[in-house]
Amino acid sequence: MNSIRLLSPNLINKIAAGEVVERPASIIKELVENSIDAKAKHISIKVEKGGINLIEVADDGVGMNTQDAKLAFIQHATSKIYSDKDLKNIFTLGFRGEALASISSIASIKLHTKTTTDDPVLILIENEQILTKAGPGRNRGTSIIVQDVFSKIPARKKFLKSDNVEFKHILSTFLKLALINNKIGFKLYNNNKSIYDLQPREELEQRILDIYPNLKDKLINISYSDKSMKLSGFIGHPSMNRKDKQQQYIFVNSRPINDIAISQAIKTGYGTNLMHNQHPVYLIALEIDPEKIDVNIHPRKNEIRFDDTQQIFRTIFNSVRIALEKRLSSELKERFKVNDKESLIPSTVVTNDTKATIQERSLKKLSYLNKKTELSIPSPNILTKDKGIGFTKALLNQTQEIFDKAQIAPLFTKALQVFNTYIITEIKNQVYIVDQHAADERINYEKTKSRFQKHKTLPSQRLLIPEQIQIEKVDYASLLENKSMLFKLGFEFDLKSNHLILNSIPEMIISKKPTDYFQEILISLGEYGKIIDKEENKLINKMIATIACHSSIRAGQELEDFQIRTLLTNLLECKQPYSCPHGRPVIWVLTKDELEKNFKRKT
Ligand code: ADP
Ligand code: MG
């Protein structure tokens, strides 16, 4: 065996470099973070060949004097922490004092710097020696040029991807840094071509829009603070949801991080506004007392350990949910608002009241109608036990006469059903295309849910002929366990070993074949298994979504005019009108602008 020897400092640096410098993008991250720590107001980054040939980062920060500039290349030389007490209160981005040392061990590096008071200095590294020269004149600040990345470790160089892939990593690093440091101006050049020229911006929102102009009017502000943390940032309108997870940014104390719990909290906050395979757009910035987090767990510092993950999860989830609900409902109300010029209310109904009160009255009447109208024509296999309320059922059984009697002012006179599936209506320079099933599902879901929350039970209807449904062994136990919960929801059954006899179903269900939806109920039970307190809500919501689906107008069903109008009005009252409880979209908006562009009336 070889005898034990101490590693040379240069070798130690090379090993450490493996941790810090994974690829050119990591060099840029370290250099730009140093510039930010040096209070730069402008940072310019130039790269060539995906950063493998050249990386140059220039700033107008505080600069270094000759002594500091030399020290900067020595491992664990840092101006940012002095004692282990400081480790607990890290406010700067870098603190290990190993970036410059590591970079110099794997690539050639040159530094040119000047403070306000000292002469400019140039530092070169040749044969592992730090050489100092008087530098050419320059303004205050620091420029660092890195060339031939990994040329000193050919084994690592092999792992680098193509220039393009490396540049993509650089771009992603650049965007994270530029987004959260909106007050700093950033420039990025690739192979001498200007890619970004971002002016310093007072507001984060402006910087986001500089980078993603398509998010204009689509950013929803998030803000929350208590004594332990401050949450700020923006989430994207659900119409901006994407198929990929790009445009998702999380920062903790201005550090970009990846955190599964936070991403999950945001996603959960979107709830049914997110379809399967869709990902929201967001930039969330958390400020937490440095004592309450550990940034030291990841060498590249892109993961963080929190003292109280649960609380952070809850706060983020709630902030996202509330902000989204508020925005979506006010947006819809705003759009549906009828202004004087384009009044849809016939003049005969207009009294001295303002338009708003007429609208309110009509809305009230509509909901009154929905609440009071009882089922008049039972479906063939159904006998009503409780005189409950099936929202859609009531609607489908209403006659024009009842509608006329209630003297409802038609809010949506221009509404057209196409393919017996979609409703097209015009509101304020916009064409709304509404999926009638998804819309009704959303309406029924919200109404059923709020009724269940209020009464803790749903009305049920007895089946004229009880239905026999085969069940698998695996379902038996969960059905037995959840029998009372299902009973509260309106399902009443006798459970046998391999089948059940279904006697009653929720009153609002209009589907004719219980076997269809009972299968869905079984699947949901299977998914959640044994219900623990916390999960119960989720399961019940899922059950209610299933019930709502089977209580709703189907695609392909022809609707009367008044039914169309009632549907649209009820949709307007929903908290989350944009998506059905399964996450499918409800409304598709086509602007007048888009139409005009398509017909080349406008460019
Ligand atoms: P760390 O950032 O962890 O302290 P680095 O190796 O990145 O370690 O930098 C070492 C030191 O060099 C820093 O602590 C700082 O004092 C100095 N330094 C590096 N880059 C700059 C810069 N752009 N402007 C001013 N000082 C810098
Ligand atoms: Mg650093």
In short:
The chain has 603 residues and is α+β, with helices and mostly antiparallel strands. The chain is built from 20 helices and 23 strands.
Features of the shown structure:
603 residues; alpha+beta; binds magnesium ion; binds adenosine-5'-diphosphate; 8-stranded mixed beta sheet; elongated; 23 strands; 38% helix; 22% strand
Structural write-up:
It is a single chain. The chain has 603 residues and is an alpha+beta fold. It is built from 20 helices and 23 strands. A hairpin with a 3-residue loop joins strand 9 and strand 10. Helix 1 crosses helix 5 and helix 14 crosses helix 19 (561-572). The structure holds adenosine-5'-diphosphate and magnesium ion. Residues 30, 34-35, 38, 59, 61-64, 72, 77-80, 94-101, 142 line the site of adenosine-5'-diphosphate.
